[in-house]
């Protein structure tokens, strides 16, 4: 996965944009894409921040441990495949 741009760069880009420098000039000065610039501007307007979202090492679980335990207690004889179907996941995820 690509490394995130630094917060310092993001802040300098937004500061330049707010000072009235055109998008085309900003793209040339900072060597970023138009999509990146527009995403940073949108995020800044929505949240007041340009910091990147926190990256997690693992994907979010599709169901909680508590939900699995509850299903096991209610359906003690269910097979692994049945549990996977119940949670709409592959059996390796259960």
UniProtKB/TrEMBL annotation:
Pfam families: HTH_Tnp_IS630. Residues 4-94 form the Transposase Synechocystis PCC domain. It comes from the Bacteria. This is Transposase. It comes from Candidatus Electronema aureum.
């Amino acid at each position: 996965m690509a490394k995130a741009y630094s917060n310092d760069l993001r802040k300098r880009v937004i500061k330049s944009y707010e000072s009235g420098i055109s998008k085309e000039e900003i793209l040339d000065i900072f060597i970023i894409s138009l999509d990146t610039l527009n995403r940073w501007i949108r995020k800044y307007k929505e949240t007041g921040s340009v910091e990147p979202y926190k990256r997690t090492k693992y994907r979010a679980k599709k169901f909680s441990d508590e939900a699995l335990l509850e299903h096991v207690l209610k359906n003690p004889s269910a097979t692994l495949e049945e549990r996977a179907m119940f949670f709409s996941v592959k059996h390796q995820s259960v």
